[in-house]
Structure formats: structure tokens, C-alpha cells
Automatic annotation (TrEMBL):
NCBIfam families: PME_inhib. One of its GO terms (cellular component) is extracellular region. This is Invertase inhibitor. It comes from the Eukaryota. CDD domains: PMEI-Pla_a_1_like (cd15795). It comes from Apostasia shenzhenica. Belongs to the PMEI family.
Amino acid sequence: MAKQLLFFFFFIVVLFHPVDVVTANIVTDTCWKISHGNSMLNNQFCVSLFNSVPSSHNTDMKGLTLISIQLTTQKAKQVLADIYRFLGSTQPKDPKIICLKSCQQSYLDAIGSLNDSVQMIETKDYIDAQMALSAAFDAGSDCERSFSESKISSLLSNDNDSYTRVAYIPLLIVADFFVE
């Protein structure tokens, strides 16, 4: 009788235990781990970013890393769109043109590095993926530096800050979960 009751209890737990609870926690667990003790990354920002992609709750760590790289690439493309908009509305002799073109190159390079990092993750080349993600991470600060060195108020401060916050996530995931 005790065995039957134990089996029945086990069956009920397995039957009604939502499988998604385990996979859904990958987002919250990952965001907590990479943001805990890190003043540069807000846990809630990380979770909400992944919540914008429903499949992030039904994946493994590699999948979550690739999703974060995809989100970073999308953000870089959004910044590039703003750069192109500013370039189109800026007079040819305006000193901001040089800064904007520098930023444009930084973000084009970042997208290349992000694309390379996807291939490196796929082939489990995590050290090189970390280096590529680190190079991509620098696009925002490199862009800001081009404005500050020219003593010009940045047109892209909000874009650069937003990009940097997103780009930090895949870099931290690779560093914390794949590189020893």
C-alpha cells in the first residue's frame, strides 16, 4: 500500500509539474548570475530584455547566448539607422560628420564581430567568441570617444548607452558560463 501511495504521489507530481518552470528559470537564473554584484547590469533590465523574445524561456544556455547576440545585433542596427539619419540631415562641412562616420564604422565593425561570435559559439570556440563580443561591446564607448575627442556634444549618447547595456549581456554570459 505504501509503495502504491508513493507511486501515485510521484505520478501526480510528474503529471502536473509544469515542464516550463525549469526552462523558464534559465532567464531569471542567468540574469541573476551575471548581474549579481555587477553595478553595470541591472537584473530586471536583463530579464525584461529576454522576456521580449518568448523563445528565450524554452532554450538552453547556448540558445540564450545566441538570442542575446541577436538582440545586440538588432540594437547595433538601430543605432546605425540613427547614424544614417543624422548623416542625411547634417551639412557636409559640419564637424559632426567625422564623428558620425567614425561611429558608423564602429557599429559596422561591431555587427561583423557579433556575426563572427555566432559562428564561434556554434563551434564552441568560446575564447574567440569572448574576444569578438568584447570588440563589439566597445562600439558605444568608441563612438562616444569620437565626439568627446572632437569636443562636440554627442548626438548618440542615448543610443550608445542603450547599445552598451544590451551588448554587455552576451559578453557576460560567455565569460560566466563558457570560459573558465
